[in-house]
Amino acid sequence: MAQTQSGVGGLVSIPALLNRNASEFAGSPAYREKEFGIWQTWTWSQTRDEIEALALGLLDMGVAEGDFVAVIGRNRPYLYWSMVAVQMVGGVPVPLYQDSVAEEMAYVMGHCGAKLAVVADQEQVDKILEVNDQLPDFQRMIYLDPRGLRKYDHEHLEQFSKVQDRGRAARDRLKAELDARIARLDYDSTCVMLYTSGTTGKPKGVVLSNRNVIETARSSSEFDHLRPDDDILAYLPMAWVGDFIFSVGQAYWTGFCVNCPESPDTMMTDLREIGPTYYFAPPRVFETQLTNVMIRMEDAGRFKQWLFHTFMKVAREVGPKLLDGKPVGFLDRVRYKLGDLAVYGPLKNTLGFSRVRVGYTAGEAIGPDIFDFYRALGINLKQLYGQTEATVFITAQPDGQVRSDTVGVPSPGVELRIAENGEVFYRSPGVFVEYYKNAESTAGTKDAEGWVATGDAGFIEPDTGHLRIIDRAKDVGQMADGSLFAPKYVENKLKFYPNILEAVVFGNNRTECTAFINIDLTAVGNWAERNNIAYSSYQELAGHPQVMDAIQRHVEEVNLSVAEDEMLSGCQVHRFVVLHKELDADDGELTRTRKVRRRIIEEKYADIIAALYDGSPRVSTVTEVTYEDGRKGAIKATLEVRDAATVAVARKMAAE
Questions:
Q1: Which one of 169, 376, 434, 468 is most buried, by most CB atoms within 10 A?
Q2: Rounded Cα–Cα distance for residues 116 and 506 (Å)
Q3: How high is the mean pLDDT in each 10-residue block of the chain (656 residues)?
Q4: Can you say whether the dihedral through the CA atoms of 591, 595, 597, 602 is positive or negative?
Q5: Separation of CA 174 from chain center
Q6: Cβ atoms 314, 332 nearer than 8 A
Q7: 394: exposed, middle or buried (Cβ count in 10 Å: 0-12, 13-18, 19+)
Q8: 392 with 245: CB under 8 angstroms?
């Protein structure tokens, strides 16, 4: 317990870990960034110098202890340094999603009272200037990229490098004050504030302490045997808790290297060049990569196709056993080795996974076939379950206990319990301090004993201790006949198909379930190209009869699968539409982490939902959309409403 109260070896803050790393791992790479096609590298010693210079510059600018500082942009070493520099001076970093519109930024920055922002470029500067009149506490901006900003009024703007220059010049004058501020940081000091995605309302500011971040980083790093020579690719949003714990918490605890891609467009190329040893991606990334592999195989010659399918059959039988340390016969080992030389090795190299020792996916359920495919290749892909309020880790899958149908066992230091209504509760050293300026929500989420309500419904398998998640607790309801309604369970099954990007299922308190479907433009577009099917827009392709037929087959296959689960067989989809537009965060239909905002969708598309239930064969609709430049527009469409075959016997059994 003493260790938990005072930190591990006196390491009570991220700046303290930085000082240790600059001493113990001085010449080892801490950050890499690809710029102008060339990888730039900073060692841990150089990183400390860069961060210290920025921290001294912030002191010279008058940043006070307790000040909130917004950090906005894509993954770059400079922005990670900014968060640590803010911590050094006793401030609180608040990373924001870089694709947030100005009004979303205004809410977060106004709510926390941010006085300063460190931003990437002109785009982010413009968004803040647009809402500056809504931010009475806001004072200054520091920008990284000067392009396009030369003629701006620089009274409240300053370039990142010049702030560092100010810090270096003021070192003799301010170093003692900086050291004093670092020394005042303790385990209970705020490390970062991260805003929730706001699925059902306004985002909430989740306050995470050094204790939350360091204890979680320590236990999770030990759980997966992470090492100082590991490499990760930092490409997920910096405002997301997962990126913070991987790219800051675990990176500073273990001393491994954080690699930042040149741009989102070059991410896959940069992934192959770095070859990370520790890798995280949401299911959609793994699904997209597999879709691209299968598209390439369809275009390959007969011999290559035969080679691929022959050795992948071997891989599915042998690969998972090898990963789990189970006995494998000599002949199977030889066959798998041949497959590795001919197929698996080159394929992993193409995907950038040649060196992955530990891979994780989370956020949504991943399709069993997709999950098994990567493990068959020898990639140690596992699932975890977490939340911002838990500093990510609630459950994880130990090596040798990896399954596609559970999210694993409680992470080290985590306790689980299931409430009478099926909601999952947890308690751990990672449990957040509070929701900022929201005592009511804090009390409604975390009780006096530290138990946190996840909002998810699930159960713990009595024989294995593994947790299985059914759905969001608030979304679980009842069909009109009293059978269970769990929309996410069905949506995830639908999204396992490469052709389907998003799905929203309706049916609470109704006699049957219906669904909205979004096609995946990349996957379906490639299919259309291979079959010489011309189309001019997403809307035209989504409504193509052959696309509708393919989606109907997928829905009916899912119905067969759902019918096998007696408890959930009432959730079969009876009717569906393929929407004329992609659900979009800019239109308020999804959160920035691509979670469905059900209530908004139900209100916005009420006419289409009505058509799904009144027997109409088609429905005409007009939908407001937001363009990239912020302008509003409207899309008109007439959508076909399709009936899908269901399994009546299973429905009857469930009703009984």
A1: 376
A2: 43
A3: 54 96 97 93 98 98 97 97 98 95 94 97 95 94 95 93 97 97 96 84 92 97 96 95 97 98 92 95 86 82 92 94 92 95 94 95 81 94 95 95 92 94 93 96 94 91 90 80 86 86 92 94 87 90 93 95 85 94 88 82 93 93 81 89 82 40
A4: positive
A5: 39
A6: yes
A7: buried
A8: yes
Handedness of CA 17, 23, 24, 26 (dihedral sign): positive
Q: 283: left (phi > 0), else alpha (psi -120 to 50), else beta?
A: alpha
Query: Do residues 19 and 47 make contact, with C-beta atoms less than 8 angstroms apart?
Result: no
Q: Which among 372, 394, 596 has a CA at the least distance from the CA of 490? A: 596
d(CA 42, CA 47): 6
Domains of the chain and any CATH numbers = 2-280 (3.40.50.12780), 281-379 (no CATH), 406-473 (2.30.38.10), 477-655 (3.30.300.30)
| Spatial separation of the C-alpha atoms in residues 544 and 533, rounded to whole Å | 9
- 623 within 8 A of 634, measured Cβ to Cβ: yes
- Spatial separation of the C-alpha atoms in residues 358 and 279, rounded to whole Å: 6
Question: What is d(CA 45, CA 43) in angstroms, rounded to the nearest whole number?
Answer: 5
User: Which neighbouring-strand residues pair with 600?
Assistant: none
**207 bridge partner residues:** 193, 434
Structure tokens at 224: 């997966």
What's at 74, amino acid-wise?
R
Q: Count Cα neighbours of 450 within 13 Å in the Cβ-side half-sphere.
A: 12
Q: Going by DSSP bridges, is the β-strand pair 573-578/513-519 parallel, antiparallel, or unpaired?
A: parallel
Phi-psi region of 462 (alpha: psi -120 to 50; beta: other; left: phi over 0): alpha
